Amino acid sequence: MSTLAGQLQKMEAHNSIFESAVRQLPLPVCAAFGAADGPQAVSFANSSRVLSTKDSDSVAKSFPNSVQASGNVVLSSAGANTKAAQGKRVAVLFSGGPASGGHNVVCGIKRVLGKGNTLFGVKPGPKGLLLGNLFEITDADVGNVINTGGFDFLGTDRTKIKSDDQFAQVKATCVKHNLDAIVVIGGDDSNTNAAVLAEFLFKGVKADGSGVQVIGVPKTIDGDLQIGDLLPISFGFDTATKIYSEMVGNILQDTRSSLKYWHFIKLMGRSASHVAIEVALQTKPAVTIISEEVAEKKQSLASIVEQIAQTVVLRSGKGMNHGVVLIPEGLIEFIPEMNTLIAELNDALAHDTAEFAALADDAKSAFVQGKLSADNARLLASLPDYVVRKLLADRDSHGNLQVSLIPTEQLLVDMVKARVKIIDAKVPFDAHCHFLGYEGRCGAPTLFDAAYTYNLGLTAGSLILDGRTGYMATITGLTSGGSPQAIPLTGLLNIERRHGQDEFVIEKALVKMDSPAMTYFVSRRADWSADDLFSSPGPRQLWGTSAYQQPISVALNSGSGSLAFKIG
Amino acid sequence: MSTLAGQLQKMEAHNSIFESAVRQLPLPVCAAFGAADGPQAVSFANSSRVLSTKDSDSVAKSFPNSVQASGNVVLSSAGANTKAAQGKRVAVLFSGGPASGGHNVVCGIKRVLGKGNTLFGVKPGPKGLLLGNLFEITDADVGNVINTGGFDFLGTDRTKIKSDDQFAQVKATCVKHNLDAIVVIGGDDSNTNAAVLAEFLFKGVKADGSGVQVIGVPKTIDGDLQIGDLLPISFGFDTATKIYSEMVGNILQDTRSSLKYWHFIKLMGRSASHVAIEVALQTKPAVTIISEEVAEKKQSLASIVEQIAQTVVLRSGKGMNHGVVLIPEGLIEFIPEMNTLIAELNDALAHDTAEFAALADDAKSAFVQGKLSADNARLLASLPDYVVRKLLADRDSHGNLQVSLIPTEQLLVDMVKARVKIIDAKVPFDAHCHFLGYEGRCGAPTLFDAAYTYNLGLTAGSLILDGRTGYMATITGLTSGGSPQAIPLTGLLNIERRHGQDEFVIEKALVKMDSPAMTYFVSRRADWSADDLFSSPGPRQLWGTSAYQQPISVALNSGSGSLAFKIG
Fold it and tell me: How many angstroms away from the CA of B13 is the closest CA of chain A?
């Protein structure tokens, strides 16, 4: 075997040159944790902030132990914890879609727990907790996964723990493994689940009557888990949007190089348009649709198409037969007429499920047409086959349409093409479609996400060693050194009617029309349409002067004076 | 306006933090050019290498001036050019699809021409040369575009200069702008065109009877322009494959995090599978199809499907219901039965074009069925509608099928799904499709491409100042400091029958079954199928220890002892 072949084989299984280099990258820690090479647990004390929602009274009734213990008061770090617990047995799990930085949360927890406590990994996700599938995480594991992307160290899944049976299984796992605490790394739903678990496990789990602590860590690439200055952004958003921004920037440069294509790019991010607005701020394309604005202005599908088609014609008149259109994944549901159609379809499909599933595609369409109102039947009939098929496809486990499967980008291309032809048949329009999603969830974390998540892990571990339960770890002041804090989960809960039942939920943060990020975007977008003013943010760097960047939308919304972040 | 808003607006139009930083990145130069901060032109002398092809005699008859001047001998640099020409007027253009590093070629030419000569940019591509659309490139332009991706500084197009009329237009442009030389930055076809232009413009262009020099520069992300150790790789390949490799690596990590998806990823790269094999070597996915191997083994579509389906079942048996399949863009044409079908379709569609175009989709299929042999009619009928539609779509200007439009990845997903169900209905198979292409052509160049292209530019400029014409610039010894050389274009030309006519072509380099890269890939792929041994090469870095990487396939094929490159 040649020397090189030998080297190459050693690079298998997560040992690329980059992965080996990035494991050595030092991570800063908030001053509260002491030295970066030996971070210490902090203790916590009540701050002066109390959280509440419109449903706080009902929440207090359903979560009596948690609310009584926390008073819904935000905790701030209060110096080194000289009386940190020892001998704790802690389990950590990922929940929901993966996001970059998850491994560093685990690493931070392990480091702060130190040799006096034991950390277990749960495989995979909440399902692993039900199955009791735990293993001990070692220092070697930390050295191996630190600064790498993905959730592949533990795996993840989307099991929602709600039934009595499931709660009993969780309790059995806690007892069997003699657990003292569980850390749930997840999004809004997973943190709601963490709140429910914290209450359920508050006491009476172990033989001595004590409970099991539950701490949440805020993850989601969608950016829809935000709580003002207490949680300017969840982890994973920065890495995902920087990956998408690089790709969009590359494609923008391609449009102006090749001079003949439009690219319609759908961006993952569920309902909210945080990802779309961040990528737009990074790259400045000709058109970016913001779902929340479409809903606010009650735009029809035809009016969105008109807006894009007019931009195509405008730019063509200036010699630019190229451009980029950004489309948020959840757009369809924010178009009022489409939302009405989908709601009626969801209702229609909730009954006669088996009968419907047995039908052929054509018959499905006919079957449904008969159950719709005249307006909706007309709208459905106006859509191309490939969209109708997706609208009638299987619902997810919650009975909802899987919006990400609808090829909104292709639908808009086809409709814009037809419209441009009517406005001015001489305008060339040749378009490509993209969906950027999975490639952004598991990339190596940006320096921002790497540092942020490591410190979130240190915070989560500190909360456990301080005996806390029912909190979500957070780091505030991300441009001024960073400060570990804890958000009482019950202070975030609202009641929402879902599938005919009242459910506790953490409200998804949508893009606000009056937010600084939206306001800035609105102030610039006409210029970006009229001329090629795009930028190419390039591949995220882990070394060098361009490595220290926070998301632009977060910087704007939090009133930062620059894009630089500063932890430690 | 807030401070930050002001900063953001200054970042528009190619002024992202990354773009501003990367402009300051110092580039190494081959020792032959002297100091990196003031590179000097080199002169050239004949080496001992003479190039020939099976058609060299015919080429000598058609390119008498070029062959007589060069003797088809490779040139090596021969020290600083103390008698470098002054007052030269040089035009540079991009030709064909964009590739990262093109801007640095222009920068290298401008730097080596210095103040004593003038460089013009041609907009866009060969079409700009016909139109005489030239502008003077300034030092400020160089400072602005250096190390940025794309061809957007000049634009590009795919016009092939072949008719007498077009040649006359080129001559008119040369006369009008009093040009002394033209640099064509392009792939195999563009460099063939450069050879033809060099011969045509050899003499008698200007009033004094002198000619216009033509120099080619080897570009293509496809990697199919390779000439052994004289040209181990064209520029743009490294950046494109590193971008694709990052995306594939991210998706691989997602598969092992989410634990439920297969991803079928088609990779741009035209006919050859160089891109696919490089990305496979970088990431180690479960399955990579190599088109050249499919052709060599005369595999049917069904046998490829069987191979993937068996891997799906094998991995499922080990608890892995996930994986990645890499598919080269040109695969369809390498499957013998599909190739036969496409050839017959191309013939059938070359006649009655207008009549055919006027038909509806269904009628098109029926129309063609009647013109096919029984075997091909059967094969066509067995393919899903969405593939048939693409097979019958408009041909390109050369009468060829636009292979990149065929959704091979979706076709394979659908066929594998059906096959897995037959082999073992209990095996879950849920798949997503991707096509990685446009996002890889215009990204910021890797350090390898940035340094390589800058030195290619220095070489091309030096060739002009040394009075040479009909050569392609190259840099050999990319791991030992780099050495400027020049390849006589006529030494590369073969005669191929295309569309019923003899044409001169530079043969496309395909993946060789006995190459070290293929051999190494074959030796490892069974292990990569059986277990998750993937690596994530991460975002390409411009700073830090992981920045100095050449392509793995190039390192293997050129017998390098490591992946590091060394220029200067």
Answer: 4
CATH for the A240-440+514-557 domain, from 3.30.457.10, 3.40.50.10140, 3.40.50.460, 3.30.390.50 = 3.40.50.460
Provide, as residue numbers in chain B, all residues whose Cβ is less than 8 Å from the Cβ of A148: 253, 536
pTM of the predicted model, to two decimals?
Answer: 0.97
Peptide bond into A336 cis (omega under 30): no
pLDDT for residue B178 is more than 80: yes
Residue ranges covered by each domain of chain B: 25-71+84-236+445-506, 240-440+514-557
- Residues with Cβ < 8 Å from B83, sequence gap 6 or more? B43
Closest partner residue to A19 (CB to CB) among B14, B440, B536 is B536
Q: Catalytic one among B141, B222, B466, B532?
A: B222
Q: Do B253 and A149 touch (CB under 8 A)?
A: yes
So which residues of A are the catalytic ones? Answer: 222
| B222 classed as catalytic | yes
Distances (CA, A) of B492 to A67, B333, B501, B502: 79, 25, 19, 16
Q: What pLDDT score was predicted for residue B396?
A: 74
Nearest to A438 among B155, B246, B254 (CB): B254
B157 contact partners, CB below 8 Å, separation of at least 6? A259, B95, B124, B125, B126, B127, B128
CA triple A201-A203-A209, angle to 5 deg: 130
Assess contact for B470 and B460: CB atoms under 8 A.
no
For residue range A472-501, what is the model confidence (pLDDT) as tens digits? 999 999 999 999 999 999 999 999 987 778
Q: B443 vs A11: CB contact, 8 Å cut-off? A: no
CB A179 within 8 A of CB A138: no
**For A396-449, how does the pLDDT look when each residue is reduced to its tens digit (9 = 90+)?**
766 777 877 889 999 999 999 999 999 999 999 999 999 999 999 999 999 999
Which pLDDT belongs to residue B2?
67
Contact (Cβ atoms closer than 8 angstroms) between residue A222 and residue A187: yes
How many Å is the Cα radius of gyration of chain B? 25
Confidence class of residue A301 from pLDDT cuts 50, 70 and 90? very high
First to last CA, chain A: 47
CATH number of B25-71+84-236+445-506: 3.40.50.450
DSSP B385-439: HHHHHHHTSPP-TTS---GGGS-HHHHHHHHHHHHHHHH-TTS---EEEEEE-GG
Tokens of B58: 């015919």
